[in-house]
From TrEMBL:
Alphabetical UniProt keywords: Signal
Pfam families (UniProt xref): Peripla_BP_2
Signal sequence residues: 1-21
Coiled-coil regions listed in the entry: none
InterPro entries reported for this sequence: ABC_Transporter_SBP (IPR050902), ABC_transptr_periplasmic_BD (IPR002491), Vit_B12_bind_prot (IPR054828)
Protein name according to UniProt: Cobalamin-binding protein
Domain of life: Bacteria
CDD domains: BtuF (cd01144)
Residue ranges of domain Fe/B12 periplasmic-binding in the record: 42-291
Amino acid sequence: MTPNKLLWLCLWLLSASNALAAGISVRDDTGATVSLAQPAQRIVTLSPHLAETVFAAGAGGQIVGTVDYSNYPEAARRIPRVGGYSRFDLEAVVALKPDLIIAWEGGNAPAHLQKLRRLGLPVYLSQISRLEDIAGEIERIGVLAGTRQSADTAARTFRQRLADLQARYAGRPVVRTFYEVWHQPLKTIGGQQFISSVIRLCGGENVFGTLTATAPDVTVEAVLAANPEAIIASGMGEARPEWLDDWQARPGLLAAQRKNLFFIPPDLIQRHTPRLLDGAERLCQHLETARSRRPAGSRQ
């Protein structure tokens, strides 16, 4: 080995040693710093959407435990369960000896997360509020799991797909939209909920966008007064909910008059994962259908 090559090798080893000593550190969605001595090899995810995101970051094989309804990709179905996201089993989590827990601020009980932290377990807390945030989360998980190359590729793909949708639907005529989470009680989304950003991406306007609650209850009378041009429903599974067609009994409702009653599977639109763009594409297509059904010369 030449002296130059030997010097280069020594410098590289010194750099690698310093990097290892420094460990790994990222900030989660709450601004808290999460530090690990080395990439996580035993990960527990405390929400279905977080399991899906870890798979997207290339670290699905490192998940040793997750919660009920973690069903995508197919391999996620075979991961041991530690309960549900709102009431997970603390003892089951600890028994898995995780070196990283990825939790959901909007769904996991803060007291339970505090107990895990007091046991010395690193907890990364996720809370996505914008479409743009998903790519960054994939990248941060890739850093923590040591799968940075796969994660960075997935994040770039997500950003490119998002940019393409933004360019395609920028400037499209506005469609006033009611997003129906559930029928009884009648629930929708507020303006700060991330599905509102999907509606805006597609050139829509959330008719309840001034509400600050994440998933507020509304009345039928309020929907009729808002008179949306399109209604988007999610329901509970892959099948179109029967109650969506109940709006046909309201002939004064513009969305009913024009048969703009649309369905998107909840896993595609209500999970903060890369598949959210699949749901966004469907929502954008539905709003394009609503535009196509306008009378000639009508702006709504």
